[in-house]
Structures are given as structure tokens and as C-alpha cells.
Design a protein that fits this description.
Blueprint: H1 7-22, H2 36-49, E1 54-57, H3 64-73, E2 79-81, E3 93-96
Parallel strand pairs: 1-3, 2-3
Helix pairs in contact: 1-2, 2-3
């Protein structure tokens, strides 16, 4: 079952989607514990549904399990690019460190 975003997360995701129509690059900044992983998972699911490819970047390898878990809850099965991982990504969603 896909997680339900909280009201403030829905508002934030809507603002990001509107900004993506207006600007080439968009950066979402939110406080710790605000649900950024779920928010970008929701954004990724919508982008993939429109036929787009998604690249998620992380500066911490230890966040990959959290990211993978959240994406799977949204029905997204991503490929990963990280140290020691040699598979060429073929998924619509790629997570890299």
C-alpha cells in the first residue's frame, strides 16, 4: 500500500511540480524528519508515470537503504550506482551516490 502524504507534504510536492514547469532546475530543502524521502518518492512516481526517467542523488551511502525502502513503498524499483556496484542501470529510476 502506497503511503499517504501529510497535508504539508502534499502542498510542498505541488509547489515543486509547479516550479518544475517554470524552471529548469528545482531544489527542495526541508528539515530533518519532514519526510523528504517520501516527498521525492511521490514526485518520482508521478514523473515515471509520465514516461520520464528519474535520477536521485545522495551524498551518503547509508541513506540508500532508506531511499530504496521508500521507493518500493511507492511501487518504484530503482537501480543503483555506487562504489562496487557494476550493473548498468536499466530502470526508469536510478539512485546514485
Amino acid at each position: 500500500m502506497q503511503p499517504k502524504l501529510r497535508d504539508y507534504q502534499v502542498i510542498t510536492v505541488d509547489k515543486v511540480n509547479k516550479a518544475l514547469f517554470k524552471y529548469k532546475h528545482v531544489l527542495l530543502v526541508s528539515s530533518q524528519g519532514s519526510g523528504k524521502t517520501f516527498m521525492f518518492s511521490d514526485i518520482a512516481k508521478k514523473a515515471i508515470a509520465k514516461g520520464r526517467n528519474v535520477l536521485i542523488l545522495s551524498n551518503r551511502t547509508k541513506l540508500l537503504k532508506q531511499t530504496d525502502g521508500a521507493l518500493k513503498k511507492f511501487g518504484i524499483f530503482a537501480d543503483f550506482i555506487t562504489n562496487g556496484y557494476n550493473k548498468i542501470p536499466t530502470s526508469k529510476c536510478v539512485v546514485a551516490t
